[in-house]
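call fold(seq) -> C-alpha cells
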Amino acid sequence: MNMKKLMMWAVMMLMVALMPMTTSCGDDDDENVALSSYIIGNWRCFRLTYYYGGQTESRDLTKTGELSAAYYEMSFKNSWNVVFKYWEQDTYGTNHWVEENGKYVIKGDIVSVNDSEGHTYDFLFDPKEKTLCIQSSAPINGATLKANVYLRK
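ret:
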C-alpha cells in the first residue's frame, strides 16, 4: 500500500472514530420533562388568573401583600408525601404560616394532592412550560380561578 492510500485510510478511520462524539446544537429548553422525577422539590404559587365574562386578569403573588391569602407552597418528596404551606388569617386578623402534610399520586400529566382533611386537588403539569396549574371546579363569584405554580431552583 502506498503512503498516499495509507494516509487517506488513516484520516477516514479517524473521522469514523470521532462520529459518535459529535453532538447537536439544539435547544434543550424545549424538551419535555418526565413528571415523576421533575415533581420532586419545592414549588410556589406565583400567578393567579381570573376568567370572568370573557375577560382575563392575571395577578402575580407574593407571600405578603394584597393577595397573600392565595399564596401557597408545596414540597414534593420521593416518598409520595407532600408538605404544603399557606398564609391564613386568624380570628384576630393576624396572618400566620400554616403547614399541612398530605400524599400525592401522578396519573399521566395530573398530580393529585390529598390533604390531611381528605380534600383532593388536581394539578395539570405542562411539560413545555414546566408548570403545574390548578383550576377551580366551580366558579367563585362568577369567575373561574386558575393558579400557576412553578419549581423553585
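The chain is about 15% helix and 45% strand.
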